[in-house]
Specification:
By secondary structure, the protein is α+β, with helices and mostly antiparallel strands. Helices cover 31% and strands 27% of the residues.
Length: 179
């Protein structure tokens, strides 16, 4: 069930490891992330803050933001639903391609267009930072893109942390990650 007591139909398990599972839902493009003991997950506090954060519409589209909380039959919070991440290639794989490989695989996309994708990512990170979040242990493999439409998605909300009051590591993360 969601926040409004509406039934959420889980159709297929897409991924599952340890205490976390990702489920396809009956709603196209929406997945459910569930946890064995949600309240003990570090991602729980982050998910709840992300759900109410004043992020730009673009940031909410790029990052798999929690849309609604998910509850079991007893009313215990077990996770949340979010938009399914879109993209066809990791940024790491895209950076590793030669000019001719990019030209052959992604018509009209040029290697210089990687700068545009990096700017989109930088804007997302600044928006997260401005709203009290930082990223941890993010790699270029955690970022998937669709070069045809300049879409960027970040996989793994476990990389997002609530920023400590004494500073931020987001700018350092971006610097280490992109350059």
């Amino acid at each position: 069930y969601d926040d409004y007591n509406t039934t959420i139909k889980l159709t297929d398990r897409l991924a599952g490891y340890g205490e976390k599972e990702t489920w396809e839902t009956a709603e196209k493009g929406v997945v459910a992330k569930t946890f064995i003991d949600y309240s003990k997950q570090p991602v729980a506090a982050v998910a709840e803050k992300l759900a109410t954060a004043n992020l730009s519409a673009h940031a909410k589209q790029v990052f798999s933001m929690p849309l609604k909380m998910v509850f079991d039959d007893e009313g215990t919070k077990v996770g949340y639903i979010t938009n399914q991440a879109n993209g066809i290639i990791s940024l790491a794989d895209l950076f590793g391609k030669t000019k001719s490989e990019i030209k052959n695989e992604f018509a009209g996309f040029k290697r210089i267009d990687l700068v545009e994708l990096s700017v989109i990512l930088a804007n997302l990170l600044m928006d997260l930072d401005k709203n009290g979040f930082e990223l941890s242990e993010l790699t270029l493999n955690d970022i998937i893109v669709d070069p045809a439409i300049y879409e960027v998605s970040i996989l793994g909300e476990e990389h997002v942390r609530i920023k400590q009051k004494d500073g931020t590591a987001t700018a350092k993360t971006l610097a280490k990650m992109v350059w």
